[in-house]
């Protein structure tokens, strides 16, 4: 099982801070599709090309594989100055 955390504006838009899902063996892109299909309201936000994803606190690509017990974090692009 995997914990998926949502941060910042993404958390507000999804109205969810975290969920637990079985994402073992999926790519980051496949997980985003799976979650988007699970909740109609989430579709627009989770498939947004600008959403960043980290696996075990390291930035991941769409093709990164998810292992058993990995923690996934999703968040909007970070800006600063």
From TrEMBL:
SUPFAM superfamilies: MoaD/ThiS (SSF54285)
InterPro entries: Beta-grasp_dom_sf, MOCS2A, Mopterin_synth/thiamin_S_b, ThiS/MoaD-like
UniProt keyword list: Nucleotide-binding
Keyword Nucleotide-binding tagged: yes
UniProt key word NADP: no
UniProt record similarity statement: Belongs to the MoaD family.
Full protein name: Molybdopterin synthase sulfur carrier subunit
Organism of provenance: Pseudoalteromonas fenneropenaei
């Amino acid at each position: 099982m995997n914990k998926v955390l949502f941060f910042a504006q993404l958390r507000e838009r999804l109205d969810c801070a975290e969920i637990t899902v079985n994402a073992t063996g999926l790519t980051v892109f496949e997980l985003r599709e799976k979650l988007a299909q699970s909740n109609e309201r989430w579709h627009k936000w989770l498939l947004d090309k600008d959403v960043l994803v980290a696996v075990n606190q390291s930035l991941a690509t769409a093709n990164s594989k998810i292992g058993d017990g990995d923690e996934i974090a999703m968040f909007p692009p970070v800006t600063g100055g």
